[in-house]
Amino acid sequence: MTWTQKQGIRLEYIEPGKPQQNAYIERFNRTARYEWLSQYLWDDLEQVREAAADWMWIYNHERPNMALGGFTPKQRLAMAA
């Protein structure tokens, strides 16, 4: 059993060479790569996991998102509730 199966995650693939089919994820991946993943030389996977958790918190709670009118995702979610 794979990790995704154990987590109850269903994988869906896009067609090769068609990143526009998954534009939001591609944009998020590019942002993550540019803002933190490529900025450091990592010693181990645990460092990457910790940095990812920290960055995700900042991304969702502190970093304004221009696609959301300059609000953070957390602020936008609160407005929708």
Task: Describe what this molecule looks like in 3D.
The protein has 81 residues and is mainly alpha-helical. The protein has one domain. The protein is 53% helix and 0% strand. It contains 4 helices and no strands. The chain has helices spanning 3-7, 23-35, 45-61, 73-80. The longest helix is centred in the middle third of the chain and has 17 residues, at 45-61. The N and C termini lie far apart (38 Å). The model has no long low-confidence stretch (mean pLDDT 90).
Oligomer designation = single chain
* SSE sequence, one letter per element: HHHH
Given helix and strand content, the structural type is mainly alpha
Please state the average pLDDT score.
90
Percent helix range: 40-55%
Low-confidence stretches: none
Count of alpha/pi helices: 4
As a percent range, the share of strand residues is: under 5%
Largest sheet: none
Overall geometry comes to: globular
Quickly count the domains: 1
How widely separated are the two ends? 38 Å
- Work out the radius of gyration: 15 Å
Q: Could you tell me the number of beta strands? A: 0
Protein name: Integrase, catalytic region
Domain Integrase catalytic: 1-81
InterPro entries: Integrase_cat-core, RNaseH-like_sf, RNaseH_sf
GO biological process, one term: DNA integration
